[in-house]
Amino acid sequence: VLKKLFLQSPAEVGLSLLIILLLAIVTIAFPAFLNPDNLRSAFDDTALLLMMAIGEMFVLLTRSVDLSVAANAALTGMVVALFNAAHPGAGVLPVLVIALALGGLLGTLNGLLVWQLRIPSIVVTLGTLSVFRGLVYIVSGGAWVNSDQMSASFLGFVRLPFLGINLLSWAGIGVAILAFLFLRYTLTGRNIYAAGNNPNAATYAGINVGRMQCIAFMLSGAISGLAGYFWAARFGVAYTDVASGFELQVIAACVIGGVSISGGVGGVAGVVLGALFLGIIKNALPVVGISPFFQMAFSGLVITVAVVLNAGTYRNRHGRRILEHQEAAP
Amino acid sequence: MSLLSSTMAQAASARPGFSWRRLLKWETLLALVVLADFILNAWLSPYFLNPWTLSDASFNFTEQAIVALPMALLIIAGEIDISVGSTMALCSVVMGMEAGAGFSTPVVVAGGLFVGFLAGCFNGVLVTGFRVPSIVATIGTLSLFRGIAYALVGNGVLKSYAPDFAYFGQGYVAGPISFELFLFAVLAILFAVVLHKTVIGQRIYAIGANPIASRLSGIRVEATKFWIFALLGLTAGLASVLLTSRLGSTRPSIASGWELSIITIVILGGVSIDGGQGSVLGVVLSALLIGLVTFGLNLLNVPGIVLGIVTGGLLIGVVAISSALGRSGRRR
Question: Does B323 touch chain A (CB under 8 A)?
Answer without folding.
Answer: yes
